[in-house]
Amino acid sequence: MWALLLGLACEPQDIRYPCEQRWFADEDQDGWGDPDDAVTACIRPEGRVANDQDCDDADDQIGPERWFRDDDGDGFGDDEGGSRYACAPEPGHVDNNADCDDEDPEVSPTAEEICGDGADQDCDGVVDEGC
Ligand SMILES: [Ca+2]
Ligand SMILES: [Ca+2]
Ligand SMILES: [Ca+2]
Ligand SMILES: [Ca+2]
Questions:
Q1: Looking at residues 87-91, what average pLDDT do you find?
Q2: 40 C-alpha to center of ligand 2: Å?
Q3: Model confidence, pTM
């Protein structure tokens, strides 16, 4: 019985992370970590997260924003170009994913619908409406 318990106690831990994994304090518990407070461990220490992207770890209302690639430069991005989280604006990125054609600056939510061409210029999901 004791041998069995001891045997279990000596089982290797369930290591799911490389031991050089760094864990960042998440004081405000918003899921974003403090880049200035890191420890290294194989198992996630309580109250810590694997990212270091919190902009203010004392305020759970302040965290990184999601930025979307805007390839055609019309001020609207999309999901396809990928997105990233950051505290400051990312070059070539915008804070929305409202572009329905990120290869055409003439197509965006602020563009005007062009009648009769079978395309949806203003990204409202309707082709040639109001024509
Ligand atoms: Ca945090
Ligand atoms: Ca925060
Ligand atoms: Ca765009
Ligand atoms: Ca566009």
A1: 93
A2: 21
A3: 0.73
